[in-house]
């Protein structure tokens, strides 16, 4: 089996195909500290792509509460349990990835959820890890905790779904790195459903094909961020392009936060697929749980996140979240503003670090009216 | 378009003709897209079959390249809209979002944010930033399932029994005038379709008949014979039109469309003129129900402290705060589009503190969290004040300058000492910071610079007295001598000490500054240890948060939510919290302020509304540019009396509803846009089973069939926001924008019309009945220019919009762009003029008032802010004043009113003034605890998956509403794709033998719940008793049970549907109305309550609209608010949660639920799957 380089686990690993990074790689940053689990992303996605028959239980995008939530149920717990010992030494992963812990006859370690596991998509909503008895006061890391995890297809650099498809009907687009299930060739074997460690490929019993998040390519092709990003009112999401390892540009907000400031981390990097949705971890959750989920650099990521208030570059990148539907390829800090540019170099958004405060004249001579705050 | 790789393009094209079966790709896609978004793969297996005939494709490495990319067009075609347009989504959630609708084949298939907020520009060219974008949410995006949904109100409908009553000539009982029972089966009679003309005529005939029946002395006698309180019958003043009630629900949400109801209330003076033969001088119109206060959104203590409706600020102002406190406010779930201001302020270094009654959703964004017992906010705030006083951290300078703390209070009368009583021949000072209104003088809203005070009122207040420590003399202060200008007086007022003052008449009285009394109260009654026991807040939490606020003087934003406001002690809560904010200088500053956040309100931003709702109906102005003659013939009224069984508050022999508040009997209701009036009423089932039967007519305007429609006589089907044809305007209290509802290009999907047209239609029909064309003339501009003249008159006469051109702002809205409101500041800062510029408040003293000298407050033992236990939601004796003895606490006892202290029924708890210190109270029990099983405080907050009920009741939203959603409804007991549930502490549930996911019964006080007079065998009882799922919820303290407010309750129709339909849906098969409960609703366990201090005739406060200060009742400003978060319940298991009622609910069985964790879940939660070396 070929060896590919996975920077997230800092080593080479087995993968069924030769290394081939796309020309451009779609990537997202999700700030869990801003996520409010409103599910606006979910409904934006649902009403655009999956409102047909056979898709009732299919949510390409979902937001779940950790630790009790999971759509499908226990998707991650089951795989963590199968992978057994997951050991990190420094930044290097010493355990096995889903491509390396493979049962005989399979391409990828995985599990296929039961239909019933897709029911109750918001199981565990808001539920915390310990029982509140009465009054409480706490500061810092919460003793009982939960947080929201927004989830879409990770458009992995080494997709497990792609690796597992016996018909080679799943492919990764060179122009944007979006991973698609060819609806014309899929025969519904569901190997991808079983293989995807994030359970973001779904079987549609009406079309008898598997389907998944398409990264809103009809929008991305026009320079627009996906629907789930555009409609995110928590402004937790940014979609852009992640440079290849070693080619990071400080003025690319995605690179700035992933490669340079390292505040955004992959979800379960130990699975080995090099997922391309990067999460800013929740600051209030015990680190041990976060390391299980986001890898060994959690503490550094949180420290850097908390330091962003004095870091104009990081702040400018963070202020690119949710201010324009256009894909931003470059941003900078300028006169207490964050400025974003598209891939043509055109300025597409300019926002102040602090929303201006304006005091109007008490009496507006021009329109002959007093201006009052208390009506 | 397929990509940069030319080879791929060729391959894609090569695949094009190979679809087979004579269907080419183009025609297939046309078929597939015909049914709208998402339908592309819904043609059963067509897609797979058709494409299965494709020729084999060779793929080398799909990671590298892929040859077969032609199919990608499918998704592009699915995505591409035919056209787009903008509309305004404005449920009562305070946000208001201009949204983009994407149209395919004439149908709105998708909705998105407009990204136009960053383009909003005011008349000076100031522009908002794109940090406001995107604005939308789940509720808005899921509207596509409402516009065309099964519950859409599609045409006017009439209830059979009502039609028969009308067709029979409105027969009534000869003595009482009662409508015969057989005509009153609301909720059970079928509906019939009628034409619009018929709908208007039936409504007009009913209103006319009702007005005639209850006019004159005989009308009043009939009302008394029906059992109404004589004071209410008297309040009609003999005009039957006064029993007609009109309500534009959340009226701020429609300057002309919802206020059309109030305009019609005014127009009804014409009807009175015909019936009673009186002229314009004596005629009386209808009554207009309140809004903000009815929803318990009004924080009733705000006007008591500041003299105006509510202090709040646009939420984005936390940009300027160092400390943000979300207090009983689940910010991230109820202020969703503004949540990012909170999280971004945190990124930029602000600290976030969350105070809540459980580990709330917002708690996960907290740097510090405090979990407290529900309904104890007044004590908590006073406990923090104690810390500040004890540790010498209170801002005494602020108290001297901005509050009534230094004012001298007479020990003999317990009134504030007046300068006129002290200084011989004292003349009240001339006021520079108030516009004094001479008798008969009028002043246009645009020309009101700030508080406008009628001359007589100002004289009656007089000036006040402080004890000056420099001169060692009492000195007069006027309402101008405060804030910024206080220093000019050169006074150094004492805050403590006792002073003997010689009065002008020679008498000597001892006086103390208000502060001395306040301090004594706080220091003796609310020490942190006591408060900790009472509130459950740990002592260190009370101390730490108090210190934090003091350290961030002027930089703390305290955002108080609906939570603490929905308890009976809500006015005391406001007064105590304001005191804390005053002690720390956090009022009216940019980034340092206190605000109340519940509902959208302040229709007063449309200060020109008088032009529309008070236009003299006898002389309507038909020249669009002509001057309007205004005369208000309608009166405001609180719905809470109707919600209290259509009664007022009497205690023993005392009538405790003030004269200015006095309601009339409610015989006709016409309401727009408001399921809260009936469907979501406190004690909803008592309302529909008992109170509603006293009404003779109920008309409801809706575009989505609500439970209020289920109980209507006529449902007027109106336009959805997407298809509005009459432009309208609204505002928001939490963001700085003025919004236009644009008229849209989308054709009406059904036989609907505008709310404005419904009002006009009824008025015109009335005109025909009485032969008076003035009714028509009052609505002339609706026909002439689509009502734009009415809207223009409102906007050009309002302070926040004068200067905007209507056509221009409509055009902007059509592009998804709002305009900023022209308030004093952008963004809005409540109390800015007072807190930052030091101008006087709207109170008597011009200061923030914490002492209330009015008799209603003294009688209630509430002249100072004290803590009262909740009236029902407490484990202890309810509604007790919790304090040690204090000279200012001398309330009337129940016996003083002619009642008994020993009476503790829910009705008797109202106006029951009993004082106990905590050390005594803690040994008492809620009276229901004597009965078996009553042991839970039950509260019903609002949540993220619905605004009221908006959004929660379409399938794709309901499925996310908590853990029980299931799109397939495999368990047919589920009423819908999601369902109502109660959050119970797992340890409590286990004690009751209740498993996670079981169905349970929740019962409140059987004396009134679910309705007065219920019997177990009643069909109504079966429908009304609350059953729901139990969820093990570790975040709620023991003894506290929570259920979300935002779910549609059961009706006769849904109950029948659930037990008779093959699919088991709790759906009314005739109307389509869908319940989220098998039976009951979150309002099964609540009821209406009245509190004396909510309905005084003496409180000084600014009017609802305009700057004029007055006294007593003002709708949405000073009136009852109810206490909908109060109930004390018992819980019993109904049946197992497992499939079909057997065994454990599946996720619990799998070991995935709290306290049911399997080994893997335990390991997962502990983070034990990963080792770090």
Question: Could you explain the architecture of this structure?
Answer:
- The complex is a heterodimer of chains A (375) and B (1173).
- Chain A has 375 residues and is α+β, with helices and mostly antiparallel strands.
- Chain A has a domain at 32-237: Alpha-Beta Plaits.
- Chain A has helices at 40-49, 75-83, 160-164, 191-195, 217-220, 227-230, 253-260, 287-294, 298-306, 312-318; strands at residues 3-6, 11-14, 26-31, 62-66, 86-89, 92-93, 136-139, 147-151, 170-172, 179-181, 201-204, 209-212, 237-241, 265-266, 277-280, 330-334, 337-341, 347-352, 358-359, 363-364, 369-370.
- A four-stranded mixed beta sheet of chain A has the order 13-3-15-14.
- In chain A, helix 7 (253-260) crosses helix 10.
- The model of chain A has no long low-confidence stretch (mean pLDDT 97).
- By secondary structure, chain B is of the alpha/beta class.
- In chain B, the strands form eleven sheets. Chain B has an eight-stranded mixed beta sheet.
- In chain B, strand 24 (697-702), helix 27 (707-710) and strand 25 (714-717) form a beta-alpha-beta unit.
- Chain B is globular.
- Strand 19 of chain A pairs antiparallel with strand 29 (825-826) of chain B, so a sheet runs across the interface.
Describe the structure in brief.
The complex is a heterodimer of chains A (375) and B (1173). By secondary structure, chain A is α+β, with helices and mostly antiparallel strands.
Mean pLDDT of chain B: 94
What is the percentage of strand-forming residues of chain B? Answer: 5-15%
- Unreliable stretches covering 5 or more consecutive residues of chain A: none
Most residues in contact, chain pair and counts: A-B, 158 and 174 residues
Number of strands of chain B: 41
Total number of helices of chain A: 10
Main sheet characteristics of chain B:
8 strands, mixed
Features:
heterodimer; A: 375 residues; alpha+beta; Alpha-Beta Plaits; 4-stranded mixed sheet; 3-stranded antiparallel sheet; B: alpha/beta; 8-stranded mixed sheet; 6-stranded mixed sheet; 43 helices
């Amino acid at each position: 089996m070929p060896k590919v380089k996975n920077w997230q686990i800092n080593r080479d690993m087995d993968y069924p195909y030769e290394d081939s990074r796309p020309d451009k790689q779609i990537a997202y940053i999700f700030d869990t500290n801003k996520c409010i689990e409103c599910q606006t992303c979910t409904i934006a996605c649902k009403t655009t792509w999956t409102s047909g028959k056979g898709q009732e239980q299919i949510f390409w995008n979902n937001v779940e509460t950790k630790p009790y939530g999971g759509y499908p149920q226990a998707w991650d717990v089951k795989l963590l349990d199968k992978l057994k010992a997951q050991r990190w030494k420094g930044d290097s992963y010493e355990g096995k990835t889903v491509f390396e812990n493979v049962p005989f006859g399979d391409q990828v370690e995985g599990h296929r959820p039961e239909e019933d596991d897709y029911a109750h998509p918001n199981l565990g909503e808001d539920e915390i890890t310990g029982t509140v008895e009465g009054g409480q006061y706490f500061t810092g890391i919460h003793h009982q905790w939960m947080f929201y995890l927004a989830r879409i297809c990770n458009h992995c650099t080494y997709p497990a779904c792609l690796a597992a498809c016996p018909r080679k009907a799943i492919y990764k687009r060179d122009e944007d790195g979006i991973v698609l299930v060819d609806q014309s060739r899929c025969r519904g074997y569901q190997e991808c459903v079983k293989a995807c460690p994030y359970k973001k490929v779904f079987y549609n019993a009406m079309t008898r094909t598997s389907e998944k998040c398409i990264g809103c390519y009809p929008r991305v092709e026009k320079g627009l961020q996906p629907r789930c990003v555009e409609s995110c009112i928590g402004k937790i999401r940014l979609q852009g392009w992640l440079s290849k390892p070693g080619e990071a540009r400080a003025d690319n907000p995605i690179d700035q936060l992933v490669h340079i400031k390292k505040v955004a981390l992959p979800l379960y990097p130990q699975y080995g697929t090099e997922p391309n949705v990067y999460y800013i971890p929740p600051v209030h959750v015990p680190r041990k749980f976060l390391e299980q989920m986001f890898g060994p650099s959690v503490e550094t990521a949180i420290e850097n996140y908390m330091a962003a208030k004095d870091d104009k570059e990081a702040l400018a990148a963070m202020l690119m979240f949710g201010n324009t539907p256009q894909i931003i390829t470059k941003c900078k800090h300028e006169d207490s503003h964050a400025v974003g540019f598209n891939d043509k170099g055109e300025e597409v958004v300019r926002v102040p670090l602090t929303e201006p405060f304006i005091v109007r004249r008490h009496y507006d001579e021009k329109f002959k009216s007093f201006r009052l705050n208390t009506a | 378009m397929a990509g940069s790789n030319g080879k791929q393009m060729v391959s894609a094209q090569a695949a094009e003709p190979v679809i087979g079966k004579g269907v080419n790709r183009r025609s297939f896609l046309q078929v597939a897209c015909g049914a709208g978004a998402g339908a592309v793969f819904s043609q059963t297996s067509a897609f797979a079959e058709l494409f299965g005939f494709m020729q084999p494709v060779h793929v080398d490495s799909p990671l590298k390249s892929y040859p077969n990319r032609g199919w990608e067009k499918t998704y592009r075609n699915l995505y591409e809209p035919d056209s787009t347009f903008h509309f305004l989504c404005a449920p009562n959630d305070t946000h208001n979002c201009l949204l983009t609708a994407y149209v395919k084949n004439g149908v709105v298939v998708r909705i998105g944010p407009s990204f136009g907020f960053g383009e909003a520009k005011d008349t000076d060219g100031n522009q908002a930033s794109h940090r406001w974008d995107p604005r939308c949410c789940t509720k808005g995006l899921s509207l596509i399932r409402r516009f065309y949904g099964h519950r859409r109100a599609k045409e006017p409908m009439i209830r059979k029994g009502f039609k028969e009553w009308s067709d029979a000539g409105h027969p009534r009982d000869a003595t009482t005038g009662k409508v015969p029972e057989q005509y009153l089966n609301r909720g059970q009679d079928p509906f019939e379709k009628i034409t619009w003309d018929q709908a208007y005529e039936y409504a007009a005939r009913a209103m006319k008949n009702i007005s005639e029946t209850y006019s004159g002395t005989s009308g009043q006698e009939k009302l008394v014979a029906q059992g109404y309180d004589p004071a209410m019958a008297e309040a009609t003043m003999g005009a039957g039109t006064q029993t007609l009630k009109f309500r534009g629900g959340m009226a701020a949400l429609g300057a002309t469309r919802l206020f059309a109801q109030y305009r019609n209330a005014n127009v009804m003076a014409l009807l009175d003129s015909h019936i009673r033969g009186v002229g314009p001088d004596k005629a009386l119109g209808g009554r207009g129900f309140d809004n903000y206060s009815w929803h318990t959104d009004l924080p009733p203590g705000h006007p008591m402290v500041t003299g105006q409706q509510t202090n709040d600020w646009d939420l984005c102002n936390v940009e300027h705060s160092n400390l943000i406190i979300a207090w009983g406010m689940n910010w991230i779930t109820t202020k969703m589009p503004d949540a990012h201001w909170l999280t971004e302020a945190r990124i930029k270094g602000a600290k976030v503190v969350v105070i809540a009654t459980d580990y709330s959703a917002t708690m996960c964004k907290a740097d510090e969290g405090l979990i407290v017992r529900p309904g104890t906010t007044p004590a908590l705030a006073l406990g923090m004040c104690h810390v500040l006083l004890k540790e010498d951290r209170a801002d005494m300078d602020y108290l001297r300058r901005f509050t009534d703390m230094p004012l001298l209070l007479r020990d003999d009368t317990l009134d504030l000492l007046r300068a006129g009583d002290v200084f011989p021949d004292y003349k009240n000072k001339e006021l520079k910071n108030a516009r004094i209104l001479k008798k008969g003088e009028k002043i246009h809203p645009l020309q009101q610079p700030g508080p406008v005070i009628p001359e007589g009122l100002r004289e009656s207040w007089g000036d006040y007295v402080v004890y000056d420590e420099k001169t060692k003399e009492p000195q007069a202060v006027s309402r101008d001598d405060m804030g910024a200008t206080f220093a000019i007086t050169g006074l150094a007022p004492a805050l403590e000490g006792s002073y003997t003052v010689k009065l002008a008449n020679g008498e000597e009285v001892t006086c103390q500054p208000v502060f001395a009394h306040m301090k004594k109260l706080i220091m003796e009654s609310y020490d942190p240890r006591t408060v900790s026991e009472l509130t459950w807040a740990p002592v260190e939490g009370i101390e730490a948060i108090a210190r934090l606020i003091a350290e961030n003087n002027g930089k703390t934003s305290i955002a108080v939510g609906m939570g603490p406001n929905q308890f009976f002690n809500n006015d005391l809560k406001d007064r105590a919290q304001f005191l804390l904010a005053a002690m720390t200088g956090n009022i009216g500053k940019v980034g340092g302020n206190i605000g109340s956040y519940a509902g959208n309100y302040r229709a007063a931003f449309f200060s020109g509304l008088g032009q529309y709702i008070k236009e003299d109906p006898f002389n309507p102005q038909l020249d669009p540019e002509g001057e309007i003659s205004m005369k208000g013939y309608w009166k405001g009224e609180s719905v809470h009396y109707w919600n209290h069984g259509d009664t007022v508050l009497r205690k023993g022999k005392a009538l405790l509803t003030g004269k200015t508040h006095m309601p009339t009997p409610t015989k006709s209701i016409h309401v727009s846009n408001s399921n809260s009036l009936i469907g979501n009423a406190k004690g909803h089932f008592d309302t529909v089973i008992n109170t509603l039967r006293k009404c003779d007519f109920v008309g409801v305007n809706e575009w989505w069939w609500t439970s209020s429609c289920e109980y209507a006589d006529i449902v007027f089907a109106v336009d959805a926001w997407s298809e509005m044809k009459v432009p309208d305007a609204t505002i928001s209290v939490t963001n700085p924008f003025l919004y236009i509802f644009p008229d849209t290009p989308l054709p009406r999907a059904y036989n609907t019309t505008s709310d404005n047209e419904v009002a006009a239609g009824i008025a015109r029909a009335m005109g025909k009945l009485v032969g008076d064309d003035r009714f028509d003339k009052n609505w002339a501009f609706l026909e002439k220019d689509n009502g734009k003249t009415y809207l223009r008159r409102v906007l050009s006469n309002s302070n926040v919009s004068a200067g905007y051109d209507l056509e221009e702002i409509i055009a902007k809205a059509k592009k998804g762009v709002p305009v900023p409101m022209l308030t004093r500041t952008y963004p809005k800062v409540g109390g800015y003029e007072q807190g930052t510029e030091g101008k006087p408040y709207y109170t008597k003293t011009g200061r923030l008032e914490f002492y209330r000298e009015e008799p209603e407050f003294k009688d209630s033992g509430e002249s100072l802010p004290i803590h009262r236990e909740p009236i029902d939601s407490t484990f202890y004796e309810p509604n007790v004043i919790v304090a040690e003895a204090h000279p200012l606490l001398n309330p009337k006892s129940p016996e003083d009113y002619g009642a008994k202290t020993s009476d503790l029924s829910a009705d008797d708890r109202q106006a029951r003034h009993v004082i106990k210190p905590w050390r005594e109270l803690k040994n008492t029990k809620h009276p229901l605890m004597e009965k078996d099983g009553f042991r839970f405080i039950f509260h019903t907050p609002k949540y993220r998956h619905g605004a009221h009920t908006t959004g929660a009741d379409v399938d794709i939203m309901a499925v996310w509403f908590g853990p029980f959603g299931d799109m397939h409804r495999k368990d047919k007991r589920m009423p819908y794709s999601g369902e109502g549930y109660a959050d119970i502490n797992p340890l409590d549930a286990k004690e009751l033998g209740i498993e996670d996911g079981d169905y349970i019964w929740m019962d409140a006080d059987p004396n009134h719940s679910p309705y007065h007079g219920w019997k177990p065998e009643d069909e109504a009882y079966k429908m009304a008793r609350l059953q729901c799922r139990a969820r093990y919820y570790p975040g709620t303290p023991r003894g506290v049970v929570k259920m979300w407010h935002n779910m549609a309750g059961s009706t006769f129709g849904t109950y029948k549907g659930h037990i008779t339909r093959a699919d088991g849906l709790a759906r009314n098969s005739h109307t389509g109305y869908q319940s989220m409960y098998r039976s009951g609703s979150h309002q099964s366990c609540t009821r209406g309550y009245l509190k004396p201090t909510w309905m005084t005739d003496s409180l000084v406060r600014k009017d609802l609209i305009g700057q004029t200060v007055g006294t007593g009742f003002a709708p949405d400003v000073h009136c009852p608010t109810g206490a909908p978060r109060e109930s004390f319940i018992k819980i019993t298991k109904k049946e197992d949660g497992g499939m079909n009622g057997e065994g454990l609910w599946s996720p619990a069985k799998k070991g995935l639920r709290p306290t049911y964790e399997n080994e893997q879940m335990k390991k997962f939660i502990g983070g034990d799957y990963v080792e770090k070396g």
